[in-house]
Amino acid sequence: MSITMTGGMTFSGAFTVTAPPPSLKAIFGYGVGSGGNKSMTNLVSNTGVIATDTTGVGTARMYLAAASYGTDKAIFGYGTTGANLDETKVSMTNLVSNTGVVSTDTTGVGTARAGLAAACYGTDKALFGYGTTAAFTYTAVTNLVSNTGVVATNTTGVGTSRWGLAAAGYGVDKALFGFGFGYVSMTNLVSNTGVVATDTTGVGTARAELSATTYGTDKAIFGYGTYPSTNVTNLVSNTGVVASDTTGVGSNNFAQAAAGYGSTGQAMFAYGAADTVNLISNTGVVASNTPTVGTWRYRLAAASYGS
After folding, report:
1. DSSP letter, residue 48
2. For each of the chain's 307 residues, which pLDDT tens digit applies?
3. pTM of this prediction?
4. CB count in 10 Å sphere of residue 289
């Protein structure tokens, strides 16, 4: 192959055309705030700008979870439609297109529960796991999500049953669940085929109602939480090793959500009890507070979408 440039210079040989890196966006949705449960969403651009409220689609609820799937889409699932954690649990899901459009409710599959977590694994699939099914009744079951957004029936739970935990992808194609109620710091690694491992001894402050996200394309971060409310974070390497506490930045917060965005692995924690945004660099550095946009709420969920 040869290419002749302006001015007559000719280059010959093999050329590689590299596609631009993916430019992820994020979506924060549902939760509870003034007036009760919400079904609204807020889209986040690939530069980390949060948009104003988008009118909600689907059943208003809190204590749900969300994850990416299919390389460019997302899914919200489960939660409670009641006024507290122990009220009506659901197993419905809402798919999110690669343009951030949320679909109406899909009939639920698997055990109805709340206070669970979700993450992407295997590069294009997702799983929901753990949660509470009734007062003082916790589970470790998981539900795999195909790369077309189909939720599978229950997979027998592995590890300690708990709620109020968080989950994120790491190492490009794996995931992990971590922390949760009754105030533990253990983690459970997830293979690139969706197999959940037994408990790994915890590192860092035991806490619940925290959040987690992928950053830097192959690492993860857990942040904030309650027991009592805190602002510490724990970085996760691309081999799934959880680091000890990093002194927190910003306000003590809990029950917020987190998701990745951008072309080089940025992310953010947003909303929650303290109603703040904390950006995360692609090296895992958490920035100080910036204002949120849209309606304040907590016990919401978030995921990346788009490409």
Report:
1. S
2. 443 444 454 434 443 333 334 579 999 999 999 999 999 999 999 999 999 999 989 999 999 999 999 999 999 999 999 999 999 999 999 999 999 999 999 998 999 999 999 999 999 999 999 999 999 999 999 999 999 999 999 999 999 999 999 999 999 999 999 999 999 999 999 999 999 999 999 899 999 999 999 999 999 999 999 998 999 999 999 999 999 999 889 999 999 999 999 999 999 999 999 999 999 999 999 999 999 999 999 999 999 999 8
3. 0.93
4. 17
Among residues 82, 175, 78, 169, the alpha carbon closest in space to that of 131 is found at 78
Residue type, 134: A
| DSSP character at residue 87 | S
CA distance 79 to 177: 17
Measured at the CA of 165, the angle between CA 59 and CA 273, to 5 degrees, comes to: 65
Closest CA to 302 of 58, 96, 145: 96
In order of their start, the domains of the chain are 22-305 (2.120.10.80)
